[in-house]
Amino acid sequence: MEKEADLFYRQLPKVELHAHLNGSVSLSTIEKLVARKPHLNIEHGMTAIRSGQRRTLDECFQVFKVIHQLVDTEEDILMVAKDVIREFAADGVKYLELRSTPRKEKTTGMTKRRYVETVIEAIRQCKNEGVDIEVRFLVAVDRRNGAEVAMETVKLAEDFMLSTDGLVVGLDLSGDPTVGHGRDLLPALQKAKNCGLKLSLHLSEVPSQADESELLLNIPPDRIGHGTFLHPEVGGSQSLVDKVRKHNTPLELCLTSNVKGQTVSSYSQHHFLYWYQMGHPSVICTDDKGVFCTDLSKEYQLAASTFNLSQEDMWTLSQKAIDCTFAPDLKQQLHQKWLELRPTLFQL
Ligand SMILES: CC(C)=CCNc1ncnc2c1ncn2[C@@H]1O[C@H](COP(=O)(O)O)[C@@H](O)[C@H]1O
Ligand SMILES: [Zn+2]
To answer: What is the pLDDT confidence band of residue 1, given thresholds at 50, 70 and 90?
Structure first.
């Protein structure tokens, strides 16, 4: 029987704002992909980092390369996206913002436009099948690919924002944080902001990026991914913190990802506490639930047990996340849903 606390966190209605599509592929979907491509000789150990395991950031990024080999056709992307959406729904996520990087045509046999269309198709199919979750999409820019590709991606994202009835809501900046510099991507990010795309930027995910963060915070972004090294105690600065505070920019915080990727030394050292105690908008997210063998319920439970927070605190945290979404049209509906679900949850 499921333990009472597990049940509480699974039933808690949740908002997931930071999920990379190909990092979110579950074991059962990986098995289906491996069966489609036995010649690749890929085992699950190569696509996930299990409990207790730690990897360097570099090793983590190698894992994405393996997953990308497995997910390289239109059929794969449709299946992966549908499976991921259904899994988040089964975990009690009521609103999901997925993000994914359209890859070079020669690696997938399809154009970047077709890649995004396929993810949108998966979102539509899940909606038509009655999966109980609202999904929106952020087109991702991989910082490793430089300024020109970033600009192309922004144009693509803008086209989709205008043609998908609000399903494409923004732009993500991600990829190996040790490669490239945000200054080169500034024109593309500014263009995205000016045309109405919401911006979620991976920021200060590794140490010594204070200059870059300073620059990118001036845009300013609409949300920050990780922000692990923003505050002074870890080599950031008060000026960075002040900027984030001034704009009240929400942080997307991913505990397991940071501990397994070794940018944070232990759960109790996670910067969640710094921002949460300040009353700053902090949203618990998974990052890559497949790679890091987690789900959003586990992340909520982990935050509660690590920082000694009550179920009531966690309820408030999940409810406040609604105000950090990039879908203003859905906020009222989501708040209503939370209110309706509350009585059943606290009767447990
Ligand atoms: C290595 C590590 C600790 C990962 C967690 N932190 C991350 N930091 C930056 N970019 C990421 C991270 N996790 C996933 N991504 C991005 O998401 C991609 C995978 O999802 P997709 O193909 O865009 O659908 C990766 O190739 C990478 O560009
Ligand atoms: Zn991320």
So the answer is: low
